[in-house]
Design brief:
This protein is α+β, with helices and mostly antiparallel strands. The protein has helices at about 1-25, 25-30, 45-65, 75-85, 100-105, 115-120, 135-140, 165-170, 180-190, 210-215, 240-250, 265-270, 285-290, 330-345, 345-355, 370-375, 375-385, 400-415, 420-435, and strands at about 40-45, 65-70, 95-100, 145, 145-150, 150-165, 200, 275-280, 300-305, 315-325. Helix 3 (about 45-65) packs across helix 15 (about 345-355), helix 10 (about 210-215) crosses helix 18 (about 400-415) and helix 18 (about 400-415) packs antiparallel against helix 19 (about 420-435). It holds the Pfam family SBP_bac_1.
């Protein structure tokens, strides 16, 4: 009994100590040494960043820290960051890190390991709760070599957005469950080129959109992959990869002309204006499609997981974390951390969602009110829980590989090279890049 009383007393003491610590820490107090500091963040012209912009005045009022931003087109973002980092300029204190840039940025020492901040009791909110992030998001977007370099901020799951009214008019009561069903059953009935109406739009503009959102999206559901996870050999000539890439070619006759020039905005707008019946797009664009100012199909919008292929539902995984620039001065690093910690916190998750963002916090989506107000979150959470963590390899060589896929993948879609020959060309170039980088002689780790 004495032992149990002792343990109980010890437990209560620890609990009260924790409560006291939590009560003692406040964002306002933590920010006092940095009041008057100005930090700069990279923004994209996407809903999650517009949502953050709505919340920033609250952070500035509490902390006295000024948060500025520069809106950069996605295709130019990595180049801007790399130029700043190689010059050790520290222009951007809050660094936007794509899922496929984390290996490059962390390996080069461009980001401050987050443990520097979350192990500092003066800077770390006791309610930080790293375990409260969806594991696949924290692992994929913010973690490299078992260290956390960023917290998930702008978070995407690939979803099927569709026009319920168009589908019902064509005789369909539900969206297609499989890619095969979409191609063979739905697409012919939903396409009318004379009226400028098409069944599907796959964003495929040359660049990361082509390599990730178009090319890679069609590999995994069909049992293919860019690289064999076991042998690390290029894998585009495998039966699954070939089937997926050929499927993309077959689907093109049901897509708008000029689809290789469609970026995200063009694909979303085509659905929003009633020009296409279905798109597979990032969850973050739900806000655009439900806004009466930008969408004609608000009352007809439906959303589900991406269709299944022979290998099951293997939806796209994408998104960004926010990290701290290793070349920024210490006071701006601390201020940047306080902003990142706050904007990604559980306390602000629902506010961020209501403002138009997509939080990475699990707790926010357990709220029935959030599920009812934002129906897209239900299939989105399902997609994150099923997971496809190596949708795109995260190693530092991805940017070089992405450029090759973007070029040859576009040529495939245009019919300038066959699916088989194009895959062989990409395989050869990928093997050359990875060989030079030391992946086959044991000098480098493989897929993370």
């Amino acid at each position: 009994m004495r032992l149990w009383r002792f343990l109980a007393t010890l437990g209560l003491t620890a609990w009260f100590a924790g409560v006291a610590t939590a009560q003692q820490w406040s964002l306002a107090e933590a920010a006092k040494p940095y009041a008057g500091t100005t930090i700069k963040a990279i923004f994209l012209d996407r809903p999650g960043y517009k949502a953050a912009a709505k919340l920033i005045p609250e952070f500035e009022k509490i902390t006295g820290i000024k948060v500025t931003n520069e809106v950069i087109p996605y295709e130019n973002t990595r180049e801007k960051i790399v130029l700043d980092m190689t010059a050790q300029g520290g222009d951007y204190d809050v660094v936007l890190v794509d899922v496929v840039w984390i290996g490059e940025f962390a390996s080069n020492g461009w980001l401050v390991p987050m443990e520097k901040f979350y192990n500092d009791p003066k800077l770390a909110d006791p309610a930080l709760n790293l375990k409260g992030f969806f594991p696949i998001l924290l692992d994929s977007f913010g973690t490299w070599d078992k260290k956390i370099y960023g917290l998930p901020f702008d978070n995407y799951a690939g979803l099927l957005f569709y026009n319920k009214c168009m589908l019902e008019k064509a005789g369909f009561k539900r969206p297609p469950a499989t890619w095969d069903e979409l191609l063979k059953v739905y697409a012919p009935k939903l396409t009318d080129p004379k009226q400028g109406i098409y069944a599907f739009a796959l964003q495929s503009r040359r660049g990361e959109t082509q390599s990730a959102d178009s090319f890679m999206r069609m590999l995994w559901p069909f049992g293919g992959s860019l690289i064999d996870p076991k042998t690390f050999e290029p894998n585009l000539l495998s039966p699954g990869s070939q089937k997926g890439l050929q499927f993309r070619q077959d689907l093109m006759k049901y897509m708008p002309p000029g689809i290789v020039d469609y970026d995200h905005n063009e694909a979303v707008n085509a659905l929003a204006q009633g020009k296409v019946a279905m798109i597979t797009e990032w969850s973050a664009f739900n806000g655009t499609l439900t806004d009466p100012k930008s969408s004609k199909i608000v009352n007809c919008l439906g959303v589900s997981t991406e269709p299944a292929g022979p290998a099951g539902i293997k939806g796209a995984l994408g998104g960004f974390s926010y990290g701290v620039n290793a070349y920024s001065p210490p006071e701006r690093q601390a201020a940047a951390w306080l902003f990142i910690q706050w904007i990604t916190s559980e306390a602000k998750a629902k506010d961020y969602i209501r403002a138009g963002g997509v939080s990475a916090r699990m707790s926010a989506y357990k709220d029935p009110a959030i599920q009812k107000a934002y129906p897209f979150t239900v299939p989105m959470v399902k997609a994150w829980e099923q997971g496809n963590p190596i949708f795109r390899p995260r190693f530092p060589e991805w940017p070089a590989i992405s450029e090759i896929i973007a070029q040859i993948g576009t040529e495939m879609m245009l019919g300038k090279v066959s699916v088989k020959d194009g895959a062989a060309q990409i395989n050869a170039k990928v093997k050359e890049i990875l060989s030079k980088a030391g992946y086959y002689d044991g000098k480098k780790p493989k897929l993370q």
